[in-house]
Amino acid sequence: MHDGSGRIVVQGLTKQFGPVTAVNNLSFTVEPGSVTGFLGPNGAGKTTTLRMLLGLVTPTAGGSTICGLPFAQLGNPGRVVGAVLEAQGFHPGRSARNHLRVYAAAMGVPDQRADEVLHLVGLGQAANRSAGAFSLGMKQRLALATALLGDPQVLVLDEPANGLDPEGIVWLRAFLQSFARSGRTVLISSHLLGEVEQMVDQVVIISRGQTAYYGPLETLRASQQSRVLVQPADPQALVAKLQESGIGSIEWTQDGRLAISGVDRKEVADLAMSSGIALYDIQQEVIDLEQLFFRLTSGQYSGAPVPSPTGYPPQPPGPSPWQPGNGWGGQG
Ligand SMILES: Nc1ncnc2c1ncn2[C@@H]1O[C@H](COP(=O)(O)OP(=O)(O)O)[C@@H](O)[C@H]1O
Ligand SMILES: [Mg+2]
């Protein structure tokens, strides 16, 4: 018997497809009562991970459990975990209600449950319409209704916001949060942080099959060392002055400004002033989560380094603060 905890545990999960390591030694835990976002760019390994969790792909190494058991040992798994995977098909001629009744019968739940779940996902009015003719957003809702048939304790959703209009996303957020607040577990994947930012309590961010960050979004936000961005008349002179006074660490931004961390605006402005260096612009960087997500995962597509702007000295690439394992991110 499963332990009824609603906990998802992924431990050292690895999947090799020939030469491609789709998932590489991935570990995380999802606790009941919360919504966890499983994030990464396309190709990061999200679907492969979820398919392993749901017993549809055999891991090369490692394993996972839901309520303390591997999926294959759950008995009647639809009663424990409801899943929505990418691109689910519906019998084109079958009504939404009949589609659900087929699954209800297979799972051993009464027919009337079909109407209950249609109501839950806001498709009550569309019960008799042919599912094949549904819009993408309605298909997502029907897939979610199917996942809810067995009244599961755990929901696993692969990119459920794809195809939803803004209203649908607001609805999905409210739905998943109330589902989680009833003490159940939600794991939801997305390649867009902004799409799920408002609905998740914690995130597992992966890049190239590996964890880039695992923890609350708030911690990720707070870990931000905000930088001072300046556009000096003479950047090299300002860099020299900053280095002389041992201030902060200095980087170039892609648009050719200096980004200085570990200082406030006043310190930089005073130093520039006392050194006779004009500043055309100075501001405190506002970090948005989407940028942070991009930095955390952009290694996946890293190609040629960003060229330094004409006239600026080339900068050796310093250690990036966006790597796991330097005290604020990474596993654990
Ligand atoms: N069945 C498969 N055979 C070979 N390669 C695969 C297979 N499934 C996924 N991949 C590869 O594994 C990597 C991760 O894919 P996927 O898990 O679908 O990522 P995501 O869902 O994050 O977009 C990609 O490089 C993809 O091409
Ligand atoms: Mg995917």
From TrEMBL:
Entry superkingdom: Bacteria
Keyword Transport: yes
Gene3D superfamilies from the UniProt entry: P-loop containing nucleotide triphosphate hydrolases
Pfam families listed in its UniProt record: ABC_tran
All copies of domain ABC transporter, residue ranges: 8-233
Family annotation (SMART domains): AAA
Molecular function GO labels: ATP binding; ATP hydrolysis activity
Keyword annotations of the record: ATP-binding, Nucleotide-binding, Transport
Pro residues biased stretches: 306-322
InterPro entries from the UniProt entry: AAA+_ATPase, ABC_transporter-like_ATP-bd, ABC_transporter-like_CS, P-loop_NTPase
Region (Disordered) location: 303-332
Similarity annotation: Belongs to the ABC transporter superfamily.
Protein known as: ABC transporter domain-containing protein
Organism: Kutzneria albida DSM 43870
